[in-house]
């Protein structure tokens, strides 16, 4: 658990957390009360629209206020050291550049396995995340370790390709050794209300993944509202997503705390309705320890301990690790190391 303190130093805050606060979105109605029953949700555009548009609306002002309040919490000393290590263990260390080379991917994998070669106590990251063409190289570099290998697929980042191409992309990444697939949804289809198309494509990619976990990237910065983020989260979960993920990191805005709050509430409510737990990945634009700790506080206060592990919450980031390592060294030694303490990515 990440022990937090309010900014006024009032001491550890238990929080109103997962059981005490329904949050800006509220809970329950989609699956009980006056709302449609989850088991009866059909898979046609009409049925899915009826369900998704029957979800309670998100109070955008309430979401902003809630996340701003939580951002005032400070995480101190031993709790901070624990939280920094947890953030490292939750990290999908990512390189998704056209200029990626086998050498760069091998260096990234070495860093993923031993983020701080000077400190054997520093934990490895959760996963390395690369393009499908780099999976074989990363698989060889990670062999014999517990570091997972994620690959973006389905014509990342735009998703603008026929479904058959997306399935082939997924198949190739899994065959080359990826045990996690990060797919993008077809945002054009979603925004046009072609929900069955989006659902069926996710379900087909899920089948293609076999034992690999599927993270479904909503690209929340293109969805236009938190109501849409909530609908896209439910659609992905109904189609079989193992994780819902905010962003590709290729467009702005990427991850934001109000967006992740809405997604956390969605996975919480989905578990209450179905008994199935789905993870959340905050990705894109997260560069500092301070930002990462804000997300951990948000997880703790929204869904609590069941999600506070790398199995259920991830950060997708290309440059966050260096700042986590600098902060980790500062907590251990009391002094900041120079920038040459970490590798330049
Ligand atoms: O999935 C992870 C993102 O692509 C990384 O985005 P970033 O480069 O802004 O950290």
Automatic annotation (TrEMBL):
One BP annotation, GO: carbohydrate catabolic process
Enzyme Commission code(s) on record: 4.1.2.4
Compositional bias of kind Gly residues: 11-35
Lineage top rank: taxon: Bacteria
Pathway assigned to this chain's UniProt record: Carbohydrate degradation; 2-deoxy-D-ribose 1-phosphate degradation; D-glyceraldehyde 3-phosphate and acetaldehyde from 2-deoxy-alpha-D-ribose 1-phosphate: step 2/2
A single cellular component GO annotation: cytoplasm
Region entry Disordered, spans: 1-40
UniProt feature coiled coil, ranges: none
TM segment ranges: none
Catalytic activity annotation: 2-deoxy-D-ribose 5-phosphate = D-glyceraldehyde 3-phosphate + acetaldehyde
Molecular function terms, GO-annotated: deoxyribose-phosphate aldolase activity
Keywords in alphabetical order: Lyase, Schiff base
Record NCBIfam families: deoC (TIGR00126)
Family as reported in the entry's similarity comment: Belongs to the DeoC/FbaB aldolase family. DeoC type 2 subfamily.
Protein name, as recorded: Deoxyribose-phosphate aldolase
Native source organism of the sequence: Pilimelia terevasa
């Amino acid at each position: 658990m990440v022990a937090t303190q309010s900014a006024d130093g009032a001491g550890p805050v238990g929080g109103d957390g997962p059981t005490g606060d329904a949050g800006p979105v509220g809970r329950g109605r989609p699956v009980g009360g006056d709302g449609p029953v989850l088991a009866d949700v059909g898979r046609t555009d009409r049925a899915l629209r009826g369900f998704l548009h029957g979800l309670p609306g998100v109070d955008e002002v309430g979401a902003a206020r809630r996340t701003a309040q939580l951002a005032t919490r400070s995480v101190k000393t031993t709790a901070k050291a624990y939280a920094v290590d947890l953030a490292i263990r939750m990290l999908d260390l990512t390189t998704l550049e056209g200029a990626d080379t086998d050498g760069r991917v091998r260096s990234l994998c070495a860093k993923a396995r031993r983020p701080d070669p000077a400190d054997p106590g520093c934990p490895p990251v959760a996963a390395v995340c690369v393009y499908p063409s780099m999976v074989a190289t990363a698989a060889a570099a990670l062999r014999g370790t517990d570091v997972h290998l994620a690959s973006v697929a389905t014509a990342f980042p735009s998703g603008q390709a026929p479904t058959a191409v997306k399935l082939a992309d997924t198949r190739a990444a899994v065959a080359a050794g990826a045990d996690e697939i990060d797919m993008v949804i077809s945002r054009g289809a979603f925004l046009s209300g072609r929900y069955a198309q989006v659902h069926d494509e996710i379900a087909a990619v899920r089948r293609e993944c076999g034992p690999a976990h599927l993270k479904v990237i909503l690209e929340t910065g293109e969805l236009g509202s938190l109501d849409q983020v909530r609908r896209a989260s439910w659609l992905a979960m109904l189609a079989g997503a193992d994780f819902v993920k905010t962003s590709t990191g290729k467009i702005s805005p990427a991850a934001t705390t109000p967006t992740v709050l809405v997604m956390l509430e969605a996975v919480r409510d989905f578990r209450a309705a179905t008994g199935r737990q789905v993870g959340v990945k905050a990705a894109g634009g997260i560069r500092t320890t301070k930002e990462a700790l804000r997300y951990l506080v948000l997880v703790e206060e929204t869904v609590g301990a069941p999600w506070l592990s790398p199995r259920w919450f991830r950060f997708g980031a290309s440059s966050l690790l260096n700042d986590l390592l600098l902060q980790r060294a500062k907590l251990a030694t009391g002094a900041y190391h120079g920038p040459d303490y970490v590798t330049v990515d």
